[in-house]
Amino acid sequence: MLLEKTPRHIRRVDRIRRLVPGAKFVMPVRDGRDTVASLTKRLGDATESLDRWISDNTMVLAERGSTDVLIYRYEDLVNDPEATIGKICTFLGLSFDQSLLDYHRNPQRWFTLDAQPQHAALRNQQVNKPIYDGRGRWKTELGQMELKELTEGRGKQLMQAFGYV
Predict the structure, then answer these.
(1) Which of 27, 57, 138, 140 gives 33 a disulfide partner, CB atoms 3.0 to 4.6 angstroms apart?
(2) Would you say 159 and 150 are in contact if contact means Cβ atoms under 8 Å apart?
(3) What gap in Å lies between CA 14 and CA 37, rounded to an integer?
């Protein structure tokens, strides 16, 4: 089994299907308000962040109903990790084991420090942390223009489709 988690690979799903027959896709979605707040903090550009969330999640929504795709909400993972991980395991044909929820108790070094030591160190730290609860950060970090665009404008359909408004 191979797992790859690069968010931008939503743009490569058709290619992956052609190159890897039988591939399955587990696609998380997250409240656009929190995602745009997070991306804006990282990228420094609210408009780019908003455009990216809308573009990426439009592609995810287009995959809804595909037999090789499971879409789950980040908020459901935070609220009920056992049920969400269990659903993912079932979809992938894997057995659920309680140790899947305790991964952070046995840290792994998934990224080598060779090429980009600072990036690798950060990624190793991130993947060994317990599930992060980043819900609601938009309440203090998101601008009014972005909030309105997500709830009343271009992002409204996606926010509704994924159950956020």
Answers:
(1) 138
(2) yes
(3) 29
**What is the C-alpha to C-alpha distance for residues 13 and 28, in angstroms, rounded to an integer?**
14
d(CA 36, CA 40): 6
Q: What is the pLDDT of residues 75-106, one digit of tens each?
A: 999 999 999 999 999 999 999 999 999 988 88
Residue position matching structure tokens 């408004």: 165
Residue 55 backbone phi and psi in degrees, to 5: -65, -50
What gap in Å lies between CA 47 and CA 21, rounded to an integer? 37
What count of residues does the chain have?
Answer: 165
CA torsion sign for 65, 23, 127, 55 is negative
Longest dimension (CA), the chain: 46
Q: What is the pTM of this model?
A: 0.88
Rounded to 5 degrees, φ, ψ at 25 are -125, 125
Q: In terms of C-beta distances under 8 Å and separation of at least 24 residues, what long-range contacts does 49-57 make, across chains too?
A: 49/146, 50/146, 50/149, 50/150, 50/154, 50/155, 53/150, 53/155, 53/158, 54/154, 54/155, 54/158, 56/7, 56/8, 56/10, 57/29, 57/32, 57/158, 57/162
